[in-house]
Design brief:
Elements (H helix, E strand, L loop, with lengths): L2 H30 L4 H4 L13 H10 L18 H33 L5 H25 L7 H9 L1 H13 L1 H35 L4
């Protein structure tokens, strides 16, 4: 098996978990806040098929850029208006951040416990899968907070600063193709610094809590 194909296979579980966490969290929070739209559309499910867009899933494996099925909401159903909208918008990225944090713990535990028990190839493959879960979820957390149409960051921009949004939002729409193309081509460089900061912080916290140091 070629190295490139192996790397693609390793990240499949991480992508599935990240997309499900993002979609389910958004649907769950919306449902709790009074909007039953996601429930009626079958999005209150941990089944990957309820959240994954097949084309978007294939694209993220091939190009590292993809998408999920959007979680539709009805803002008029929220009791606290834009405040509830903000909670729903943040639910997806924060779910990815939480999954990334949990994955760091699992990785530390896996390295400590499984190294002398399992064959090295099995130990290495599962360890790489857990590591990918952390990295992909943290990457999605940072990426989705960018103020680009279609991402949570764009919705937050509209909800938190409507005056500036209506001043600059249309410009972002006008250049969204160029921006997205830049993200596809330069995404790893753009996201690398904040992702590294978060992962390193999570590693230190997990190491301190578990008493494991490398």
């Amino acid at each position: 098996m070629s190295g490139a194909l192996y790397e693609k296979i390793i990240i499949i579980p991480a992508i599935l978990i990240a997309f499900v966490a993002q979609g389910y969290a958004r649907a769950k929070v919306a449902d709790k806040l009074g909007d039953k739209t996601p429930r009626f559309q079958g999005r209150l499910s941990l089944n990957p098929l309820a959240h994954i867009d097949l084309v978007g899933f294939v694209m993220i494996i091939i190009t590292n850029f993809g998408w999920t099925k959007p979680v539709e909401t009805n803002p008029s159903a929220f009791k606290r208006g834009y405040k509830d909208e903000i909670k729903v918008t943040l639910a997806g990225p924060l779910a990815n951040l939480l999954v990334g944090f949990v994955a760091i713990f699992l990785f530390y535990i896996w390295v400590e416990v499984a190294y002398n028990i399992l064959p090295y190839s099995t130990y290495r493959i599962i360890g790489q899968m857990i590591s990918a879960i952390c990295l992909i979820n943290v990457n999605l957390f940072v990426f989705n907070l960018l103020p680009i149409p279609g991402l949570a960051g764009f919705d937050l921009f509209r909800e938190l600063s409507p005056k500036n949004f209506y001043k600059y939002g249309m410009k972002l729409y006008d250049y969204q193709i160029v921006i997205l193309l830049g993200i596809v081509l330069l995404g790893s460089y753009i996201l690398r610094f904040p992702v590294s900061l978060i992962v390193n912080l999570f590693s230190k916290i997990a190491g301190l809590i578990l008493g494991i140091f490398f």
